[in-house]
Amino acid sequence: MKTHHGEVNAVFNKAFSSFALYEGKNGEGFVPYQCSSRYHPRDRDSKFVLGLRKWLADFHLDEGPNSFSFLREMKEGEQANLLCEVLHVCEVSEHEWMAFVWDGTDSPPLNIGTRLENEMDSPLPLQLEPIPLPRDLLCTFPTAGTILRVIIAKGNEKHILHLLSAGKWVRFLNILCEVHEGLWRGVLTPFTKICYVSNDNHLILGCQRSYNERLSLELGRIPYWCFPWCSQLTEVDYDHVPFVTLMDVLTCSQVTAKFKCIVRVVAALPWRVEDFCSHSGTYRIRLTMEDPTARIHAFLFDEDGEKFFDGYPSIDVLTRKRNKLLGVPVNDDGKEIEDAARKPPWVQCCIKSYYLDRNNTWGSRNYRIFGTKLVD
After folding, report:
1. Of 61, 150, 49, residue with least CA distance to 107
2. What are the residues whose beta carbons fall under 8 Å from the beta carbon of 250, sequence distance 6 or more?
3. Is the peptide bond prior to 228 cis by the omega test (within 30 degrees of 0)?
4. pTM to 2 decimals?
5. Residue 50 backbone dihedrals phi, psi, to 5 degrees
6. Tens digit of each residue's pLDDT (9 = 90 or more) over 101-112
7. Distance (Å, rounded) from C-alpha 314 to C-alpha 182?
8. β-pairing, 2-4 with 7-9?
9. Among the residues of the chain, which ranges form H helices?
10. CA geometry: angle 171, 50, 15, nearest 5 deg
11. How many CB atoms lie under 10 A from the CB of residue 67?
């Protein structure tokens, strides 16, 4: 046993050491799930394991209010201690795994560093995983609060995966918080530690109670970061309709439905306002919008685009409206500041879902903006 930077470590020397790893407090048998080649079981080992399981059942970590952070408190490039529920774990590429975790809070909105013109050749992704998760799996996820993608790097999966089970609450110690394509992600480094937390832990019960209280509020599904209210940049026709999250939109049980959300518009295709209309004069734009729960593409088409932009304004007016919507920074003369990060505002928006193929309604489901006006 050695100390390193104030922490106690067990050092394994393959020349003369041996080890065996057993299941924890919920284990029943006394057969190790992993052991070294030099390990030889002894009768008294089972007594030691039984004693450790009894001790672990009553053991409590120091879980003071400052011992962990919520997802809403993440900061780019910093290592955090997070207490989260594991929702799902899957292999996203060969030998690279990803965990989906949640604590009921909204991650901070990020500045968008990509240029508008990049959307044509290098569009912002809707999610970090290469292939979207199946809809039936998404429907098991909470619809409010950020679902953080946690990367398990190659080579670490054999040490980590058995600790991450769906439905379990875990504490991540020193998890690295990163930003990729304007999306938050966690990274498990060699310095990250993971430990289980009992479902009856007072901190977990507090997270669940706060989440249930949030859902019971009339405005509980609007992003935490737009309080006390979103910007006045847009107006919507359906003031009486309650707000929902984009995860509510994705997991709605009906293929065709109407929704009202508060979102940020992070990209537009085409990005040049001169190309917003077709040769026949019809608006046809794809907007990428996000809230703390998800990103989606929503189309602005024909008469809905005419309402959104209040007719067919001049190029200068349309450019000013686009820049406000997408958070493009401008100088005192109204000129765009090159290579400056964008800060899209939170805006109200009405969205309706529809399908393109009657024989594949869910597979051809799309989203369209309607009943929304961009105020100059």
Report:
1. 150
2. 135, 138, 294, 296
3. yes
4. 0.81
5. -60, -40
6. 999 999 999 999
7. 31
8. antiparallel
9. 45-57, 135-138, 157-160, 202-216, 246-250, 302-308, 315-326
10. 80
11. 13
